[in-house]
Amino acid sequence: MAGGKGSRMNLPEEKLLLKFKKPIILQVAEALTTSDCFSKVIFITSQNSPKTKQLLEKNNYGIFDTPGTGYVEDLNLVLKSLNDSVLIVSADLPLLDSEIIKKIVNLYDSNNKWTTILVTKNFLKSLGLSSDYDITFENKLCNYTGISMINSQQISSLENIEEKFVIVDDKRIGFNINTKQDYDLLSTT
């Protein structure tokens, strides 16, 4: 997912083009492609991120362009066009690497329609991060990572889907960039 506005960043440039060794979007792209877990890697873009789309195209990555009306709406559009097992990854994970991708893919069970990867709130705090989206799972306060494994063959819409949750406290998926403070903190990791 690479089509958001990045409005919480309050920066003139597109969030996914910010650099941590290389542009964040290219770090995510490399992690996905070098994991050798997928037959195809597609980036979901929109008019909200034209320079990100341009960089991905320049580097020969597949693009699925959406209207950019919202995360859920854009994801629903994509899933309706696929008939396969799908790993959804938020593209603002600058520490993502192929090893954590392999670990997550090994957790996949195609009998589950939707598996969402969480980190515990305490783990995020230990990284100096916070999130506005809390969920209680296994009596622990958790946060979403932006990573889900989906059997799109079993989904006709995103309404009333029973999610299976898995906690993976790992900074490679817990450290996502939502604010300028998150980006500044990245340089200390």
Number of separate structural domains: 1
**Cα radius of gyration in angstroms:** 16 Å
**CATH level-4 homologous superfamily:** Spore Coat Polysaccharide Biosynthesis Protein SpsA, Chain A
Please give the largest β-sheet: 5 strands, mixed
Helical segment count:
7
CATH architecture: Alpha-Beta Complex
Distance between the termini: 24 Å
Helical content stands at 25-40%
Measured by DSSP, the beta-strand proportion falls in 15-25%
Shape: globular
Quick one: how many beta strands? Answer: 9
| Low-confidence runs of at least 5 consecutive residues | none
Mean pLDDT: 84
| CATH fold-level assignment | Spore Coat Polysaccharide Biosynthesis Protein SpsA, Chain A
SSE pattern, N- to C-terminal: EEHEHEHEHEHEEEHH
Structural class category: alpha/beta
CATH class: Alpha Beta
Question: How would you describe this protein?
Answer:
With about 190 residues, the protein is α/β, with parallel strands linked by helices. The protein has one domain: Spore Coat Polysaccharide Biosynthesis Protein SpsA, Chain A (Alpha-Beta Complex). The protein contains 7 helices and 9 strands, in the order ββαβαβαβαβαβββαα. It has helices at about 25-35, 50-60, 70-80, 100-105, 120-125, 170-175, 180-185, and strands at about 20, 20-25, 40-45, 60-65, 85-90, 115-120, 135, 140-150, 165. The strands form 3 sheets. Strands 5, 6, 7, 8 and 9 form a 5-stranded mixed beta sheet that branches. A two-stranded antiparallel ribbon has the order 1-2. Strands 3-4 form a two-stranded parallel sheet. The longest helix has 11 residues, at about 25-35.
